[in-house]
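User: Here's a structure from my thesis project, written as structure tokens. My advisor, Dr. K., wants to see whether a designed sequence matches the one we expressed. Can you design one independently, without my sequence as a hint?
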């Protein structure tokens, strides 16, 4: 009986240690991704950011996802501009952000992908993004 309890304790400890390691790796990845964040300002009257024709943001190897942190709650989506195909927006439509918190708009996006943010409202919006 003692051996079973001891074995159970060892297995439980190993499981917790493994979980801690995974959590540390995820936290490190997020820190690296968010540490490379860029600021944005979308002026009032526009829904696209960047709003200039032919200008895009580009994903990097720093993040696997497209993330945004806004200064106020807004509805926003990410739209992609492939070189040899029509533009399209991320599945799921607009996502509502919480002021001051990171929101994932698209997951598993390839490095070098060109994209823009499309906001539901033409009101001014500021914040940071990481991709």
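Assistant: Designed independently from the structure alone:
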């Amino acid at each position: 009986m003692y051996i079973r309890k001891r074995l159970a304790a060892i297995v439980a400890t190993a499981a917790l240690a493994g979980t801690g390691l995974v959590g540390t790796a995820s936290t490190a990845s997020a820190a690296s991704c968010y540490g490379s964040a860029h600021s944005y300002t979308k002026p009032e009257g526009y829904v696209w950011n960047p709003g200039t024709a032919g200008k895009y943001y580009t994903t990097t190897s720093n993040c696997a996802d497209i993330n945004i942190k806004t200064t106020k709650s807004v509805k926003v989506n990410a739209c992609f501009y492939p070189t040899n195909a029509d533009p399209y927006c991320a599945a799921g439509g607009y996502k509502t952000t919480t002021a001051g918190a990171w929101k994932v708009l698209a997951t598993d996006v390839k490095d070098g992908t060109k994209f823009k943010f499309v906001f539901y409202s033409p009101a001014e919006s500021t914040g940071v993004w990481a991709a």
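When you compare it with your expressed construct, this may help: Residues 1-25 have pLDDT under 50 and may be disordered.
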